[in-house]
TrEMBL record:
It comes from Streptomyces tuirus. Belongs to the HIBADH-related family. Gene3D superfamilies: N-(1-d-carboxylethyl)-l-norvaline Dehydrogenase, domain 2 (1.10.1040.10), NAD(P)-binding Rossmann-like Domain (3.40.50.720). Its EC number is 1.1.1.60. Residues 16-174 form the 6-phosphogluconate dehydrogenase NADP-binding domain. This is 2-hydroxy-3-oxopropionate reductase. The keyword Phosphoprotein does not apply. One of its GO terms (molecular function) is NADP binding.
Length: 305
C-alpha cells in the first residue's frame, strides 16, 4: 500500500526498477525511496530484497518482473560480465523492458561494454545512459556521489532529478562510454592517491610521529584529499571493512590500463599501482577495502601482516 500511495502522490515521477542491491545499490535505492520514487528491485541475495522491502520498496522475483512496468531501469552490478548477463538474453532487461524505457547503468565497466549496450538497446527502442559513480559506500549512503554520465543530452535531462536524489556532482561527459572513461580516470587517481597515503602512513609510523596529528595537518594542506578524509580512520584503526573492495579496484585498474593502451596514453605510475593492487589481491586481501593497500606497503617494509 505504501508504494501505491507513493506512486499516486507523485504521478510525475517515473516508476523505477533497480537491479543489483549490493554495498552501493542498497543505500542508493533507499535514497530514491526517501525522495518519493516507487522502486521495484531485484538482486540475487534474499536479505537484500528484504532490506529493500523494509525500506518501502517492492521486491521482485526476477529481472523480467522488476523491469516489466518500469519507466526507468537502473543497474548497479560489479563488472562488465554481470552487466551483460542481466541485460541480454530472454530473461534480461532488453527483452523484458518496455520500448521507450530509459536504462541507466551505474556499474563501473569498460567503455566499450557501454557503447555496445547502447547500440543493442536502441534496436529495442530502449534509451541508455552509462552513469558510473564515485564516492564509495559513504557517498552512496549520504547521497553525495559524483556521477559521470555518457549518452544523449535529452536522456540526461530526463534522468537529472533521479541523479540529484543520489549524488551531488552530476555531469554529462559526452557520448555513450564517456562516463565509463571518466570513471576509469577516477579509479586511477584514487588508487595512486591511496598508495601515496599508505606509503606516508608507514613512513610516519616508522619515524615515531603521532600519526593522527600528522594526518590531520597533512589533510589541511596541499596533500589533503577526499581520499585522505574518507580513509584516514581506516589507516589509523587498521579497519579494512570493505566500502570498496580491492577485487573491484583490481578490475577497474585493468579497465584503465587497457583503455589507455588503446588510445596510446602512457600511465607509468598507474601501471605500478595496478600491479600493487594485483599483488594485494593475490595475497588474499581482495575482499578488503582498497585502503588495505597499506598492508602491501607494510609487507614491503618488512612487517608481518
Amino acid at each position: 500500500m505504501s508504494n501505491e500511495r507513493a506512486a499516486s502522490s507523485h504521478p510525475d515521477r517515473p516508476a523505477i526498477a533497480w537491479i543489483g542491491l549490493g554495498i552501493m545499490g542498497s543505500p542508493m535505492s533507499e535514497n530514491l525511496l526517501k525522495a518519493g520514487y516507487d522502486v521495484t528491485g531485484y538482486t540475487l541475495e534474499q536479505d537484500k530484497l528484504d532490506r529493500l522491502a523494509a525500506a518501502g520498496g517492492t521486491a521482485a522475483g526476477s529481472i523480467a518482473e522488476a523491469v516489466r512496468d518500469a519507466d526507468v531501469v537502473i543497474t548497479m552490478v560489479p563488472a562488465s560480465p554481470q552487466v551483460e548477463a542481466i541485460s541480454y538474453g530472454p530473461d534480461g532487461i532488453l527483452e523484458n523492458a518496455r520500448p521507450g524505457a530509459l536504462l541507466i547503468d551505474m556499474s563501473s565497466i569498460t567503455p566499450q561494454t557501454s557503447v555496445d549496450l547502447a547500440k543493442a538497446a536502441k534496436d529495442k527502442g530502449i534509451r541508455v545512459l552509462d552513469a558510473p559513480v564515485s564516492g564509495g559506500e559513504a557517498g552512496a549512503v549520504e547521497a553525495v556521489l559524483s556521477i559521470m554520465v555518457g549518452g544523449e543530452q535529452a536522456d540526461f535531462d530526463q534522468a537529472k532529478p533521479i541523479f540529484e536524489a543520489l549524488g551531488k556532482t552530476i555531469v554529462l561527459c559526452g557520448p555513450h562510454g564517456s562516463g565509463q572513461t571518466v570513471k576509469a580516470a577516477n579509479q586511477l587517481i584514487v588508487a595512486v592517491n591511496i598508495q601515496a597515503c599508505a606509503e606516508a602512513v608507514v613512513f610516519l609510523e616508522r619515524s615515531g610521529v603521532d600519526l593522527k596529528a600528522a594526518l590531520d595537518v597533512l589533510n589541511g594542506g596541499l596533500a589533503g584529499s577526499t581520499v585522505l578524509t574518507r580513509k584516514k580512520d581506516n589507516f589509523l584503526n587498521r579497519d579494512f571493512k570493505p566500502g570498496f573492495r580491492i577485487d573491484l579496484h583490481h578490475k577497474d585498474m585493468g579497465i584503465v590500463t587497457d583503455a589507455a593502451r588503446n588510445v596510446g596514453a602512457s600511465l607509468p605510475v598507474g601501471a605500478v599501482v595496478a600491479q600493487l593492487v594485483a599483488s594485494l589481491r593475490a595475497q588474499g586481501d581482495g575482499g578488503l577495502d582498497h585502503s588495505a593497500l597499506l598492508r602491501a606497503v607494510e609487507r614491503l617494509s618488512g612487517a608481518q601482516v
